[in-house]
Amino acid sequence: MDISGQIVLTALMAVFLFGVVLFLARAADWRTYTPLAGAGSGIVSREGGYGHAEKPAGIFRWLTTVDHKDIGILYGVYAVLAFAWGGIAVIIMRTELITPGIDVTETLSTAMGVSSGQNLYNALLTSHGITMLFLFGTPILAAFSNYLVPLLIDADDMAFPRINAIAFWMLPPGAVLIWGGFFIAPFFDSIAPSMASWTMYPPQSVSQTAQGGAASTIADLNAGTDLMLLGLHLTGVSATMGAINFIATIFTERGPDVGWDKLDIFSWTILTQSALILFSFPLLGSALVMLLLDRNFATTFFTADGGGTILYQHLFWFFGHPEVYILVLPPMGIISYVLPRFSGRKLFGFKFVVYSTLAIGVLSFGVWAHHMFSTGIDPRIRASFMAVSLAIAIPSAVKTFNWITTMWNGKIRLTTPMLFCIGFVGNFIIGGVTGVFLASIPVDLILHDTYYVVGHFHYVIMGAIAFAVFAGVYYWFPLVTGRMYQVTLAKAHFWLTMVGTNLTFFAMILMGYAGMPRRYATYNLITVGPIDFIQLLHVLATVGAFILLVAQIIWLWNMVQSYLEGPRVGPDPWNLEEDGVESREWDWFDDRLETALTDGGEAEDAETDA
Amino acid sequence: MTETVSDRFRGRRIVVAIYLAVVALAGVFGASVGVLLPVKSGRDIQQASFAGAEFAVTPLNFAIYGVVMVGVTLGVLLLAVRFVSRFDDGSVDEG
Lengths: 610, 95
Fold this sequence. Notes:
The structure holds two protein chains of two kinds.
Chain A: H1 3-26, H2 59-64, H3 68-96, H4 104-112, H5 117-152, H6 161-169, H7 171-184, H8 204-207, H9 223-252, H10 265-297, H11 309-341, H12 350-363, H13 379-391, H14 393-408, E1 411-412, H15 416-439, H16 441-447, H17 451-481, H18 487-514, H19 531-565, H20 576-579, H21 584-598
Helix pairs in contact in A: 3-5, 3-6, 3-19, 4-5, 5-7, 5-9, 5-11, 5-17, 6-9, 7-9, 9-10, 10-11, 10-12, 11-12, 11-14, 11-17, 12-14, 14-15, 15-17, 15-18, 17-18, 18-19
Chain B: E1 9-10, H1 11-36, E2 47-50, E3 53-56, H2 59-84
Helix pairs in contact in B: 1-2
């Protein structure tokens, strides 16, 4: 084709794209998110201030919004998509582990353009870890904090609404980069999804090829890992911007009635979490940049004759351990907030829960080397890290103690959010106590890199953090959608999740005792444990994982269907007034309902709670 | 349908029920460890000792160990909860 032909083609393409933009701009009758008012072009914001008085309709509303509530919803939807990706990855891995040899991933690897089943397993393992921590965990908590913190502290919006939007919009490209290897692998033999594991330890993360071996020149490196590092860096920048925004918001935007003494427990945990993010994520960013330089520009930050691989581990875990508390503190805040509402009383020992939150925040920076007990670091350093790791159990136990005492003297209503709260407390005790044993050096040396560790931290991440997320989702579902979810499905979701979690992760703890090492696609060659018994436990863990899968499908169905056609709720769907445990966000909801009615919104089947 | 649960349970009944369930589970877990440890091709551990007392690794022994250990530890904590709850200003349970 000659050059003029190409110009014509380019012009045609431009006209076509312009047409697409016009179509999108005019698609105003797309279903617009208007939970309270009737159909129309968006909600009129009651809060004055910086002016998002009227929002555009359709897709443009979501692309341009700086409203903290909209951004909260965007974070939530994004996190659910990431949860699905991470969940599917783990279902493939658990299916592989039913038998000791390699089978399912071998078949899949051909279709997905990965060189072997083992490599695909390693790639899925990497993707599962990174996705669940950085693309699901942190964003789903940002969904709650974005939506709720300004409401709870009586602020008009976040302190920096546009930075808030930028922070969110960095995440989708981050995810595309992190998952990028999977999309590119079918087309290039030299590129595979990263197999560096979520911890990205060198030398492997600096030298791996797409076939899994060590590269002899920089040109042989698997570019999938570069994409992942860049994507991860983006999500880190996003989290840091969000954290700065929350600190500024909670310090400067509180309403006249909200002094520090009136600040609610959830905002306290978000404030502490934001401080942890601010001090730890820059370390991750630095370590990632150094990895990228080592890979692409032959620097020697982490080579054996340069800074050394242990340097990377120190930097990574100085970020990585606070990350654990970045993920667990806000869920603890949700539990401390929701559990008393269904115990019909206020939280027992509020002040001590706040103090223990702050104590965890400080101590979390002094425990990182407990991930490195078996690396041969100086025993005197190990002993001090053991002491701090044991000490951090104390503030966590104080919180647990206060939740139980709150229930002890309460009158309990077993609603779905409350069931998830109780499930959280139970699972958190198991996850916490198994962690206390790991903090002890001699026990850690035996159990390090076994499934015991995997079982322990999944009890916390799935059994506690995800449970608190579900408690929050159910509790605030009426606030966000104006509708109620289906109770029977919600109860089924809880019980299946509870059984699935305990089946999967307790089997893993036993496997660790039996000597099963973590991170392997196969176990037909291991010599440390009884293979028959280990296989039985793997099968149980896989059954548990499938129960979890069914439960989450039920949950997703319930959320979508109830959002579309659930019954509308009245101003106090949880009967909080009856117990005198009302809170600011439901007052806001009440105001909003009244405004919608006077605005001419429909109240067709408004249902007050009886 | 709205999620209104009009039944209210006394908090301490729920807490005690959870305590009993956890202690029972500890028994099941103990039994599983008792099955696991002596398996021949595994670590092959036949004897255990606690505070000087030696006992054989059997599912029953380990189930008893689990129940007693968890029962006593959590029991002490539960008594502590009971004790501090006397100083609880926010109590809504008069019983």
